[in-house]
């Protein structure tokens, strides 16, 4: 019996090997176990919507209109944000947007400048 690790996304124990990748049949998540081990050792890696690696202090552009929860304000597409700070959690970017104030954004809705 093999001892493959559980799926990092849904924790399913029914993972299987497909070449160099491991695959979860329940959620269809594919991952490289050696890349996952090196990532956990160095901390999380944050990427923008096109795969560029983000770092603290980067400048980004918003790629779609985002409604501000609890307000009638909208962060418009193309809004530039300077000097971001990366944090762990669902919304992984802390920033300050002119005209709106302090915000938390998801990295999937931004593009590095």
Automatic annotation (TrEMBL):
Residues 47-112 form the Protein YjdM C-terminal domain. Belongs to the YjdM family. Residues 3-32 form the Protein YjdM N-terminal domain. It comes from Cellvibrio polysaccharolyticus. This is Protein YjdM. Pfam families: YjdM, Zn_Ribbon_YjdM.
